[in-house]
Design a protein that fits this description.
The protein is built from three helices and eleven strands, in the order ααββββββββαβββ. The chain is mostly beta strands. This is Protocatechuate 3,4-dioxygenase subunit beta.
Length: 238
């Protein structure tokens, strides 16, 4: 089996000078590409269903979280537009104030006792997934003077095994912080960057309850969603 390769500029380089911490972890020599073996193609296999509240981050605690409820939904597709069923999709994000429920996130924004910011769901037969959550806030991150990350949600997608994992970030349309964010702009190609931006979908909005944003994920090919290398996440949440 062969796949159409991703176009140049689709994925961020391991060394992105504007994203300062990549200089500390980017390899000094060109990487050696290893062929896939049995370990990469098989186990440990993913088994078991997601929990009953894993897809709804607003219902995981006794009270209502603070912030604007949103629905994040879409489909996971291959390079030919075919659905990818039974893929485990996990998300993690900051709360409405821009703070993660994480011990290393200690900037002075309030924590929300009714929102921990993590969820998961398994794609359906048509590759679809859906989460109900809270729109995250922007937050400072110390990369440069007055550095703020645009609002975003992290998505992790597993294939049939734990070794088959892809990670990306979903952004919101028309964010004023795009221009100064080196992580967003580490993807060289502008068209590829826009594939990380969700689309507001009024038809999918739940009346009197939640706005809706569509984010389809394409795993391979020329229209592939940009993905991060595993070491591109700093402190587990950027």
């Amino acid at each position: 089996m062969t796949y159409r390769p991703a176009a140049d500029g689709t994925h961020p380089p391991l060394l992105s000078p504007g994203y300062r911490s990549t200089a500390l972890r980017a390899p000094s020599h060109a990487p050696v590409v290893l062929p896939q073996g049995l370990t990469e193609l098989t186990g440990p296999a993913l088994t078991g269903p997601a929990g009953p509240s894993d897809h709804d981050l607003t219902r995981q605690h006794a009270g209502e979280p603070i912030g604007q409820r949103i629905v994040v939904f879409g489909r996971v597709l291959d390079s030919d537009g075919r659905p990818v069923p039974d893929s485990l999709v996990e998300i993690w994000q900051a709360n409405a104030a821009g703070r993660y429920a994480h011990a290393r996130d200690d900037w002075p924004a309030p924590l929300d006792p009714n929102f921990t910011g993590g969820g998961r769901v398994v794609t359906g037969s048509d590759g679809s997934y859906s989460f109900t959550t809270i729109r995250p806030g922007a937050y400072p991150w110390g990369n440069h003077h007055n550095a703020w990350r645009p609002a975003h949600i992290h998505l992790s997608l597993f294939g049939r095994a734990f070794t088959q994992r892809l990670v990306t970030q979903m952004y919101f349309p028309d964010d004023p912080l795009f221009a100064q964010d080196p992580i967003f702009n580490s993807v060289p190609d502008e068209k590829a960057r826009l594939r990380m931006v969700s689309t507001f979908d009024l038809d999918a909005t739940r009346a009197d309850w939640a706005l809706a944003y569509r984010f389809d994920v394409v795993l391979r090919g020329r229209d592939q969603t940009p993905f991060e290398a595993p070491h591109d996440e700093e402190n587990g949440h950027e």
